[in-house]
Design goal:
This protein has helices spanning 13-24, 31-39, 43-50, 52-69, 84-93, 103-110, 124-142, 154-164; strands spanning 2-6, 28-30, 72-75, 95-100, 145-148. By secondary structure, the chain is of the alpha/beta class. A five-stranded parallel β-sheet has the order 2-3-1-4-5, sandwiched between helices. The chain has eight helices and five strands, in the order βαβαααβαβααβα. The protein binds shikimate-3-phosphate. Residues 9, 32, 43, 47, 77-79, 116-118 line the site of shikimate-3-phosphate (S3P). Shikimate-3-phosphate (S3P) binds at residues 9, 32, 43, 47, 77-79, 116-118. Keywords: Amino-acid biosynthesis, Aromatic amino acid biosynthesis, ATP-binding, Cytoplasm, Kinase, Magnesium, Metal-binding, Nucleotide-binding, Transferase. GO terms for molecular function: ATP binding; magnesium ion binding; shikimate kinase activity.
Amino acid sequence: MLLVLVGLPGSGKTTVGRQLARRLHLPFVDSDHAIEHRLGCSVREYFEREGEDRFRDLESEVLADLCQNHQGVLSTGGGSVLRPINRERLHQHGHVFYLRSSPEEVFRRLRNDQNRPLLQVADPQARLRELMEKRDPLYRETAHYVIETGRPNVASLVNMIVAQL
Ligand code: S3P
């Protein structure tokens, strides 16, 4: 079984994914960590040095590999749904959950996080609103279930996911 979490950066994919895996006694992998393992440097460093396209190529390769070979919980980078091939692969191979957070909620969580290259801009809030507008339909297309992250805590979100299985 492959359970996949998609959503904006800062929507809680990694935190919820880890707890979900623990709860179900399944292995957990985060696609950004798998990429970093392969590169030997941080996503941010690679993204800044090589540009977004190169990063997306590598991300697609790693996702293809994980879709074939990983059983358990997979938390994905926020931009993994940008390429149609990734949307198809994730939808086909996994039960996909979209952790849907408002841009305001994400901004509150990520305000002090220096490791999100896409948010290192003059107006990160406007950037998040743009990302949401563009990506919300893509997350919905990829996912089988939408989980609104608004008020519930991590444990309740895990329960909501488990209830759908
Ligand atoms: C990105 C999100 C990041 C990481 C990269 C690009 C994006 O992952 O893959 O910085 O395009 O939204 P998180 O969603 O884990 O922050």
